[in-house]
Backbone:
């Protein structure tokens, strides 16, 4: 199983000299083996992936792929109309997403590509498209078992676990800790009591996610905020670095990759935050490997 990052940024694309290392494109991962192509999210990174797919696909061979969407916020679907393989007859793509949107999955893209917003409608795309609305039940995709799980984000969002007989990848972007949001909604005075003590505690709903990601070889997880930033942005649907580390350690994850980088975060600032997270993790004696996801990064799992 090969994993390649085509977009790692959150909220809005921010290309420029200060974001070259970690990348300025929004969320998009390619997962592939010798018979399956899966894409996680359709942020602006999807455009570059499409061009690369066309370059490396032999002439006359059709492309078949599976696009799994975590949710439908604009930064996660904005690349869809610019994915060139969709404009080639014979190519075939299946799009997957959660069923809690209140309307059919296909209608999300019909609206996005209506004439007011884009010159080509969804119906005019030459590739064959099909849409599958997911629940939390696993699906089988050739050698892979793909299991969705609902995470804590406004408007509903999914995490995905992709398993083979030998490896496990978990993609959990746009996930906010349940503990602090629920306490804030209940108007409790002890919302951040554990953070004030220099700790990160996990409660029932967060522990359910620990069970979901248990033993993952790679966890790609939301790291948009620092702990200080999160205190003023509770309810915005994102995590802070210390929480992602706690989640990964509790779940026995081997490698944690921070993802969905804040658009205001420069490469230099991210370097410092990643180093700080590494130091905090290793200080506990944990074997967890910690890094920041970067555009162009490739990982090969058995």
Residues:
């Amino acid at each position: 199983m090969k994993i390649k990052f085509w977009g790692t940024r959150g909220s809005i694309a921010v290309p420029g000299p200060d974001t070259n290392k970690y990348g300025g494109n929004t969320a998009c991962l390619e997962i592939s083996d010798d018979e399956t192509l899966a894409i996680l999210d359709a942020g602006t990174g999807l455009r570059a992936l499409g061009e690369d797919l066309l370059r490396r696909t032999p002439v006359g061979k059709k492309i078949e792929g599976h696009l799994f969407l975590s949710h439908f916020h604009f930064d996660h679907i904005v690349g869809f109309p610019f994915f060139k393989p969709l404009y080639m007859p014979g190519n075939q793509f299946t799009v997957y997403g959660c069923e809690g949107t209140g309307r059919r999955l296909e209608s999300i893209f019909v609206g996005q590509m209506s004439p007011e917003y884009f010159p080509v409608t969804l119906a005019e795309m030459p590739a064959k498209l099909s849409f599958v609305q997911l629940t939390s039940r696993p699906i089988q995709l050739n050698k892979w078992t793909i299991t969705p799980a609902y995470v804590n984000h406004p408007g509903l969002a999914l995490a995905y676990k992709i398993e083979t007989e030998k490896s496990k990848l978990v993609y959990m972007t746009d996930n906010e800790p349940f503990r602090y949001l629920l306490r804030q909604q209940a108007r409790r005075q002890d919302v951040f009591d554990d953070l004030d003590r220099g700790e990160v505690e996990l409660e029932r709903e967060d522990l359910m996610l620990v069970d979901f990601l248990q033993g993952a070889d790679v966890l790609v997880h939301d790291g948009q905020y620092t702990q200080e930033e999160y205190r003023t942005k509770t309810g915005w649907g994102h995590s802070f670095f210390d929480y992602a580390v706690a989640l990964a350690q509790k779940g026995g994850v081997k490698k944690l990759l921070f993802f969905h980088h804040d658009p205001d975060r420069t490469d230099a600032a991210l370097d410092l935050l990643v180093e700080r997270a590494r130091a905090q993790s290793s200080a506990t004696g944990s074997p967890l490997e910690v890094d920041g996801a970067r555009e162009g990064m490739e990982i090969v799992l058995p």
Q: What stands out?
A: Residues 267-283 form the longest helix (17 residues). The chain is about 25% helix and 25% strand. The helical segments are 45-56, 105-112, 178-185, 193-196, 204-213, 227-231, 241-250, 267-283. The chain has one domain: 2-298.
